[in-house]
Design a protein that fits this description.
heterodimer, A: alpha/beta, Rossmann fold, seven-stranded mixed sheet, 7 strands, B: alpha/beta
Chain lengths: ~240, ~350
């Protein structure tokens, strides 16, 4: 009998600190699987964000650095320029990548840095207690939009992937979702493409993942997946953007 | 021996960094340090030098964080308002114990101020500047030659202590031209410069992590205590200063950087008239050279702190001399105490 599934070497055997139904565990796992499958564990350097995933390096079994909130792509730019032979990726949430770090995101993309970006969009700030994110949906209740996001005063959900797709140096952007096993398989394919693009020197590649946050959505894990499918994916359509 | 050339302070800092083995520079334009960035843009690119004009000061200092994490000798430069923006990144660099060099060619503040020289960032530089209990090693060059030479020292100290080092100049020094003797030897990495902690990919070893986050309070306190131990060692070992005519001095002037050059002229003029005046020029502002004062401390010595700011270095002089009398002469916002101002103050 062939062994077709096992614990990735790139994933440490630690229990995660994430809430029930959170998408981070899934995202960490498939990144670890891809790193193993591509045989790049000894070359990869991961950037952990400020946010719920700040201790991602406790789960990944390869070289990692923290980056200050929003600055991951500036840090990653320098690491990759200094060590072009290494495979460098950032792992960033919506607040990190599309609010406090918008400038670093846009300019790293505009320079066409040969980096892989994993963008976790869960439409809310998790670590700080469920405040409005740049990607919070219209009408969505958060700690700082108790009556729901009013687009006329709080702004519209920011579609940073579509914005980045306008930049000539950006090579690949795809939006995927974690709302079903089939979608997770597609997400893994997209993330693998984003890593392969770096290995093949193709250039800046970003995968946006619609990822559940049951705790701050005030929903059960099951209901959260349905909400992604029925509501969130309507605002943030899935598929290849560039 | 290499020939002497004429250079501005800003260019000398840039050439000094390159000769000292700096292979990564990121910066953002701001006057009065633009010659430094422009010099780097010309002379850094190519193997192994990397130059990036960053989108902001925040990005520039975080690029330095990344380059240093990857094992490069990395630096950024700016002037006062830009250095304020870099404070977040500097705190992270100190917290992650990364070596890095930050050059501040100071201008007058607060706020936008203007581009005239000043020394008003003394507190920011010597007290840490960003959040948390940390220090930078702060070097203050007083000539174009010293600015060049201190780039070697600053990268060596940064590597030795895994700590950020600031070279604190001002617009006067940055813009002035002086003859410069280039070093005959440039930096060659040796066993001492090995960085086993750097991010290189985990081939043949367990993974490295660069971080400043400690979820456990006991761990964070332990980390902080270790940082304090490192700072105590730096205080003990790295105080640097220049002293002139201290032996019989009744009045000791204390000044650093560009201000010390004017003070030196005043000291020579006063000595010419038989006045027993000396000068202590701090070369390291942190650690402040307390040893220079304890060495010469007598009950009737009078001190005069002279600075292009309103009583910032003065506080360190007062701490160093205890109960001795310390007078103060300072101007800022573009004003510079003149040789005559100093002479009048010593005589008066």
């Amino acid at each position: 009998m062939d062994k077709i599934y096992s614990h990735p070497v790139s994933l440490r055997d630690n229990s995660t600190h994430y809430c029930a139904g959170c998408g981070h565990g899934t995202a960490h796992r498939i990144i670890a699987e891809i790193v193993d499958e591509l045989g790049i564990r000894e070359k990869v350097i991961g950037l952990a964000p400020v946010g719920c995933a700040v201790i991602a390096y406790e789960y990944w079994n390869f070289d990692c650095s923290e980056a200050a909130h929003g600055r991951a792509l500036a840090v990653a730019t320098a690491i990759k320029r200094v060590r072009p032979e290494n495979i460098v990726f950032t792992y960033q949430g919506d607040g990190d990548l599309a609010a406090i770090g918008t400038n670093e995101t846009i300019h790293a993309a505009n320079r066409g840095e040969n980096l892989t970006v994993i963008f976790i969009n869960n439409a809310v700030y998790g670590m700080t207690g469920g405040q409005m994110a740049p990607t919070t949906l219209a009408g969505q209740k958060t700690a700082t939009t108790p009556a729901g996001r009013d687009v006329l005063s709080h702004g519209f959900p920011l579609k940073i992937s579509e914005m980045l797709a306008l930049l000539p140096a950006v090579k690949y952007i795809e939006r995927v979702s974690f709302h079903s096993p089939q979608e997770i398989i597609k997400a893994k394919q997209a993330i693998k493409t984003a890593f392969l693009n770096q290995i093949n020197n193709i250039g800046f590649s970003l995968v946006e993942i619609l990822s559940p946050c049951p705790t701050y959505w005030g929903m059960s894990p099951q209901k959260s997946l349905e909400w992604i499918k029925e509501v969130m994916a309507k605002e943030f359509p899935l598929g290849r953007i560039k | 021996m290499k020939k002497k050339i004429l250079m501005t302070g800003n260019e000398a800092v840039a050439q000094g960094a390159i000769d000292a083995g700096c292979t990564f520079y990121a910066g953002y334009p701001i006057t009065p340090q633009n010659e430094l960035t422009a010099y780097m843009a010309v002379h850094m690119p190519g193997k192994p030098g990397i130059f990036i004009q960053a989108e902001s000061e925040l990005a520039a200092i975080n690029m330095v964080y990344g380059a240093s994490a990857a094992g490069a000798r990395a630096m950024t430069s700016s002037s006062s308002p830009g250095i304020s923006l870099k404070q977040e990144g500097i705190s992270y660099i100190a917290g992650a114990e990364l070596p890095a060099v930050i050059v501040n060619v100071m201008r007058a503040g607060p706020g936008l101020g203007n581009i005239t020289p000043a020394q008003s960032d003394y507190f920011q530089a010597t007290r840490g500047g960003g959040h948390g209990d940390y220090h930078l090693i702060v070097l203050a060059p007083a000539s174009v030659q010293e600015a060049y030479d201190q780039m070697f020292l600053s990268f060596d100290l940064a590597d030795k202590y895994r700590a950020p080092v600031m070279v604190l100049g001002d617009g006067m020094l940055g813009q002035m031209m002086e003859p410069l003797q280039l070093s005959a030897v440039s930096f060659q990495p040796s066993a001492e410069n090995k960085k086993p902690w750097a991010l290189t990919g985990c081939a043949g070893r367990s993974p490295n992590v660069i971080k400043s986050f400690y979820m456990d309070t006991n761990e964070l306190e332990k980390f902080n205590l270790n940082l304090q131990k490192k700072y105590a060692l730096i205080r003990q070992k790295e105080q640097r200063w220049e002293e002139i005519f201290l032996k019989d001095a009744k009045t000791i002037i204390v000044a650093y950087g560009s201000m010390a050059r004017i003070a030196r002229s005043a000291v020579h003029a006063l000595r010419g008239k038989g006045k027993k005046v000396g000068l202590i020029r701090p070369i390291t502002l942190w650690p402040f050279p307390e040893k220079a004062f304890t060495k010469h401390l007598t009950s009737n010595t009078r001190y005069l702190a002279v600075e292009m700011s309103y009583g910032q270095m003065l506080e360190d002089v007062q701490l160093a001399v205890g109960k001795a009398k310390v007078d103060f002469l300072g101007r800022a916002g573009g004003g510079v105490p003149s040789e005559e101002d100093i002479i009048r103050r010593v005589n008066g």
